[in-house]
Amino acid sequence: MSFNSAYKIFFSLLLFFAFEANAQQSAVSAGSGTISGKLIDASNNQTLPFASVALTRKSDNKALNLQTDINGNFTLTDLADGIYAMKISFTGYLTIHKDNISISENNRVINLGTIKISPAKGVLKEVVISSHKDLVQVGIDKKSFSVDQSLVSQGGSATDLLTNIPTVQVDVDGNVSLRGSNNVKVLINGKPSALTGNDLTDILQSIPASSIETIEVITNPSAKYDSEGDSGIINIILKKNVAIGFNGSASASVGTHNTYNGTLNLAYQNSKINIYTNYSYRKADRIGNGSSDKTTGFLNSNTQQEQNQVSDQKFTFSGHNIRSGIDYNIDPKTTISFSDNINIRDRDRDQNGNTQITNDGALLQTLVQNNTTHSTGTNLDFNLDFNHKFKKKDEELTANIGYSTSHDNEYDYLNTAYSFYNPDSAYNYQQNNHIIGHQHNWNLQADYVLPLNNNNKLEMGYRSTFSTNDNNYLVDTVNSITQALDYDPVLSNHFIYHEQVHAIYTNYQQQFGKFGIQAGLRLEEARINTTLTDTLTEKHSQNYLRLYPSLFLTEKLTDNQTLQFSYSRRVTRPRGNQISPFIDKSDPLNYTQGNPNLQPQDIHSFELSYINYWKTLTLTSSLYYRLTNDNIQRIISPVTSEISLTQFENVKSASNAGYELIAKVSPSNTFDLTGNLNIYYKNIDGDPSLGLQPTSGFSWNANLTANIKPFKKLGFQIRGDYQGPQVIPQGRADAVYGIDGGVRYDISKKLSFSFNGRDLLNTRKFANTVTYNNPVENYYSNQYSQRRFATGVYIATLSYRFGGTPGRNKKDKSKDQQQQDQDVPDDTNSAPTGGGAPAGGGPAMQR
Q1: Is 813 helix (H, G, I), strand (E, B) or coil?
Q2: Between 333 and 729, where is the model more confident?
Q3: Could you tell me which residues come within 8 angstroms of residue 677 by beta carbon, excluding any fewer than 6 positions away?
Q4: What's the pTM?
């Protein structure tokens, strides 16, 4: 499909979609609604003054906050028509949630009457009325996934959790992709981190899902955010305390494949300080197997060579993750915070493989591989944050200084036995690799928000990042004379990557009645220098200055419906083995080499989103189109009839257009259903000189999660997912699907038990076909591979919550409640205050 054709199809769909959105519901007048009530102590019927009442409109997350008066009364006025959620909280008492409060033309005055709230009696927890916390919170540009509500992920890793998030896919190697693209920016608590460096897949495997609060997905970020990542941003928010007083929680898990998890959260907060710490441990095995069948030959010859390989693998992961921090309120409007995160992990891998090579059916060669790997890694993150709210409403200054470092050691012991049959001969080959990796990151940042009047505001900011990635690859091979292992300078190399990115941005927002516009511009300068030392020293550099504009147009169709169009320009910079010119020959049949001249991908992303809230249904849908220039692709070409070489090249362009739907229906308090459907068309340009043919095709993926709560203390969850066949460079990937399930039982107010299983039907496997056809070289190859990991995993988890709020006088309670309101996000993502593990929106996303 050409760009012009895709352009016409896309914008025709946009016009049709906009027409359908406007036709779905007639406009409702804005109205002027009122919600009122009175709060009293359920134990003695005394009124409760200065309690916090937070009201959030679901269509746009716009929040109103007030306190009850001296007699416990509250009244919220001038409310537009729409569906609202209310949270009522008071220090030392159970928190109350009221969901789906509807203000409409026929019902604009709502009196909730007398609301009774019970003392917590030493246990901080919530009373939820008419609703429970959502599994997925959806918005126009962001989706937030609540970890605590995912029964199928409890006891698992961060990787297991990511597989359950709409629009996110995780492949057999743990690589994360978003809307079909693996060039996605991953942040920790809204900040870049060494935790998201080259060993991201290992790190995600070592972090228990229980230490994660929320995962946010932003598919089309504005100019205020980092421009890196063509398909958007995934932000992993780790747990932080928002409860008053001392509180905590603990959990332990045990499961099949030697799975063991443990988590402990402790926290204390008063009007001046908030101190919290989280420790988690995870250990688990991933057992997998795979096979590969490859046919190669010459186009003008009937002779064919076949390569058949089978392999078994076992990974053992173990990891410790420690997060702690302190927030100090200098005054009611100024907070300074320090936080750290420590990740310590080990990974062992045992791999056995057998390969047979035949020529027209005659056995030529057999390779038997027995490889073991042991690796250790340590990551440290430190952040100092400053936040000041000015007297003018919504005027705010934030700043961050962050430093992160990582150290990795990996030892590979590679043993291959070669047997030849024509003529008969055999020998054993041994190679030991020692890989030493260091990474250091600095982040300097400041952001300022200036409201100009009631209808517009200006945002501006600065950010600089300094990154160094140092990888020393030391190889010992067998000396043919002495049979000892000697240092091999030909296979060894030392690769150093330096990167500086300096950015300034500005965003302007203006509201014209129901129509809003936000225009932004980000200026980024990137300086990249690499040094490769093997037998010679080779240096390369790339410096470029680019503008990254963004535009958001929003039309409020009704109080419950919003339509938004957005555009942003983004970039994906090649790193690591993509640009190292060294040829990695660790696998004797599959070599890998980077390209130091590889250019960054230039992405133009368009999206039209529609969201609608009904009492029992939330609907979010998007049409999107992404054009990628200088598209980076993996090219597999033959070195010999037995050996393949994987390289990285820029091809002209690639495009991806699709339709995405997320819907949640809640017909009752005992049942809800969340579904996600993504249908997309992918087109990749070819390059005959590289043996890369154009490829294109439709694909789709979907998942469905059902929550059933037949009794107050008992809940079930079942989830199914399907990824349809899709095109890949030089081939096609097969469909992948599976079913997960979980159950939770609340033994008491403090103690709960859960049990879950993943891939219940043992169906998840990853398979693809790669074809190489180069008429210039008169050579072709066809390879079919399939792999799978850790099927039928079952985990049992026991969780315990504890803590309480010390007694205070009314004056102290009022101050503490105000502080709590400041720390808890004023949106529907606000979480239970019990257990030291609330699922708030987390720290503000760093740009």
Answers
A1: helix
A2: 333
A3: 659, 660, 661, 700, 701, 702
A4: 0.73
